[in-house]
From TrEMBL, chains A, B:
Keyword hit for Transcription: yes
Transmembrane segments: none
Family label: In the C-terminal section; belongs to the class-I pyridoxal-phosphate-dependent aminotransferase family.
Pfam families, per database record: Aminotran_1_2 (PF00155), GntR (PF00392)
Protein name: PLP-dependent aminotransferase family protein
Gene3D superfamilies (UniProt xref): Aspartate Aminotransferase, domain 1, Type I PLP-dependent aspartate aminotransferase-like (Major domain), Winged helix-like DNA-binding domain superfamily/Winged helix DNA-binding domain
Length: 466, 466
């Protein structure tokens, strides 16, 4: 969708009156050179401008900026009164799918609240308020509660044999915020960034709204093609590589140890930050995954996003960014301007539960429960479809390839009618082309509903088979 | 600091290789015209480029882009290894002052946790977890918990006689996030926005990081000069006017009723959104303030930011943006990309306390307690200084004019040494010129400490008097 970014760029110039009504737009060749994009991309942007009444074509002469008033009406007659935003055509694809209320929820990579020790958690919360009676009236330091950061330092030292300083940790409100803060700090419009193909759809939408050019890196069961990664770093000089190397979302793949070290070396050599998003580290079924890339990093080129609350207490939305102090300074400033710090209440509740023995027991049970659900989903699909997938060794999702010409978008609409939702592969693809793929989440609904839901889904799918 | 924004704009072009090493920069005249700024502003930006080794001057010829490698080192030799961010020289001035740990805290517009009914709140929280046993495992809808939005609809209908629909309310994590979301939605680099002079420093820093050109509107005890407002709207076509018309931060002034209606008319006529930040509405001492501007708005030009948790339970960070549905759509998208929704835990706790009778009783007591602290601060200052101020009729701050040549910055550094902090007026001024002014907050520390702190502060100040 690069052409939409070029479109936004031009609309911005027009709205700021840098390019005025009646003025000739730069030639396609010239603008393509200036922005470092293909001519066809600029051509498509100009076509969209024309369609939306923002530009007009004069035969043999080129494109011209149209009168502003006219274009405003042409764009969206229903919203005449609404002031124009910078959002343009960007949206949050995943969030729109998840906003549809359904009984058979296969689109949320969330753990079933019934798998959490709710009663115990509630009792625990009460204790927390006895320990900190003024919790409701207190703000957290912008960078995060000190007690919590101390705990996470100890945890990382024990778990990953990595020594952190207190101010190498920033507490954020969920992984989405962590991704967004990093994007805000590093992406200027039209900057190149590397993203896996496929990847987490929410991250793609965050990067798009910041105007990034998304350069895809293929991910397979063996990890990346490092020669491709190096070539892309060389060619595009990307600001960062956003990656999800452990029980990758949506595929479930894990980038092998051997590649992890080499990736950090590439990052240093090409001065390309690695944004390592690690949401499912503790959600393994057989063996624990290899150490995170950040443990190989000595020069500060890895920013490590570690979600904790997903499997502890998702409602608290506690996540951490771990990075070197030179990066932390600006990151804390951006966090302060975004929300002035994550609420202290949430951090203290998380802190006290996270260090309890109960948490470790819960985690073991949770892994078994998730594995059971994965197995049920696989068994049902195996029996009822010829769809293909690789068994995930951790994480919350199954990434399925349907027959090549399968109309996935039509299936999704039909599923919504039957109170079922899933994630279509196209929104996980930076190029929006992976049409016959879908992501099914097995962690959110119970075994019985899961079985029912998959049966219904596969029944519906039959009517679309060629 | 407009020149820094122009500087950032040029640095961006250079970093993206749009303007390459060795290339001649546009003439000062040309760039000033293109960006719609004064030539002196561009001159200052070019000077800064030169100082930072990003540009060089050739006699009689103009400015040229310097070799990238060279400039990178020249800019910041200490952070050589740190990847460059888009933050540039922007920071959060207020947050940096508040991060200094002090005993006599006059820089935080926060209510003393001891004034909140903490024990009662803690008991309440326990009930909330009994009502919603799965709270810890549940996400909120991105736009906010439905029960909470229903409650706020009823509250606004009762309090302000304004009928809202459920989807005209968005729950945010504090007012800072609300301001930031609106800035993200409307500000493109170099867009003009109107801001009061002085105003809330945190908002200025948010707007700066989005690249806004800040156009000041003077605020006085009588409100604004509406002719000035109209002229500025006409001349600059600002994206919005960020205002704090009720117990204004930092001055305490309230824009009179008569002006409120006229401002909404101006907004409609010049298609300039009013961002009405209303953090202190319930914090009045004599009579309740006039109705918010948004109650006069029928066409959707007012975005109303209402902080609730400040006087209820600041640790929860619950705030709301109220606006028409046409604006709400994109706002919810931006919220989803920023953090996927405010944690449900915080919303449910707030909900249940906010609708309790106890809250109303607490509010009455709180007003009296704050008034007592204001009176003590005024009495101490009256006795010990010739500083000038207007008695605030609500809010949490005193805005003081010190003698004209008073070295406020030196005073602040000396105060830090004695464990005292306050807000220097310059950071509240979009032009950063209001040198002899300071903001003292009277809500955070108790009567005894407040007295002590003011005595110490005025003692220290004596050594700087001419």
């Amino acid at each position: 969708m690069l052409f939409k970014q070029v479109y936004q760029y031009i609309v911005g110039k027009i709205e700021r009156n840098e390019w005025q009504a009646g003025e000739k737009l730069p030639s396609i060749r010239l603008l393509a050179e200036e922005l470092g994009v293909h001519r066809l991309t600029v051509f498509k942007a100009y076509q969209l401008l024309k369609e939306n009444g923002k530009a007009l074509v004069k035969e043999k002469s080129g494109y011209y900026v149209k009168d502003a008033q006219q274009s405003c009406h042409a764009l969206d007659p229903d919203l005449e009164a609404a002031p124009p935003t910078v959002l343009g055509e960007f949206k949050n694809n995943l969030s729109e799918i998840q906003a549809v209320p359904v009984a058979y929820q296969f689109s949320q990579a969330l753990i079933d609240p019934n798998l959490l020790p709710n009663l115990f958690l509630s009792e625990y919360v009460k204790k927390v308020f006895d320990i900190y009676p003024k919790l409701m009236g207190s703000y957290s330091p912008v960078q995060g509660d000190i007690e919590l950061r101390e705990l996470l330092c100890r945890y990382i030292a024990h778990k990953h044999k990595a020594q952190l300083k207190l101010n190498e940790i920033l507490i954020t409100s969920g992984a989405t915020q962590a991704i967004d803060l990093i994007a805000r700090l590093y992406i200027r419009p039209l900057d190149a960034i590397l993203v896996e193909r496929p990847t987490y759809s929410g991250a793609l939408d965050v990067f798009r709204i910041h105007g990034a050019r998304l350069i895809p890196v293929e991910i397979s069961i063996d990890g990346y093609d490092l020669e491709q990664v190096e070539a892309l770093m060389k060619q595009h000089r990307p600001r960062f590589f956003y990656m999800n190397p452990t029980f990758h979302n949506p595929t479930g793949y894990t980038v092998p140890s051997a590649q992890r070290k080499l990736l950090v070396e590439l990052a240093e050599r090409y001065r390309c930050i690695l944004v390592e998003d690690d949401a499912f580290h503790e959600m393994y079924f057989d063996t624990p995954p290899p150490p995170p890339l950040f443990t190989y990093d000595t020069e500060g080129w890895v920013l490590y996003i570690r979600s904790f609350s997903k499997y502890v207490a998702p409602g608290l939305r506690i996540c951490a960014i771990i990075c070197r102090q030179s990066v932390m300074g600006p990151l804390v400033t951006v966090k302060s301007l975004a929300d002035n710090g994550t609420p202290l209440v949430n951090q203290k509740i998380f802190l006290h539960y996270f260090q309890s023995d109960r948490m470790q027991q819960h985690l073991k049970k949770l892994r078994i429960a998730l594995q059971v659900r994965r197995d049920i989903m696989e068994a049902e699909l195996h029996e009822r479809t010829n769809w293909e997938w690789v068994r995930p060794k951790g994480g919350l999702n199954l990434w399925l390839k349907l027959p090549d010409t399968f109309p996935v978008e039509t299936l999704l609409q039909a599923c919504f009618q039957h109170s079922i939702s899933f994630v279509p592969g196209t929104i996980c693809d930076p190029l929006q082309q992976m049409k016959p793929w879908i992501r099914l989440n097995y962690s959110f609904i119970n075994e019985e509903k899961l079985r029912e839901g998959i049966r219904k889904l596969t029944d519906i799918s039959r009517q679309f088979e060629a």
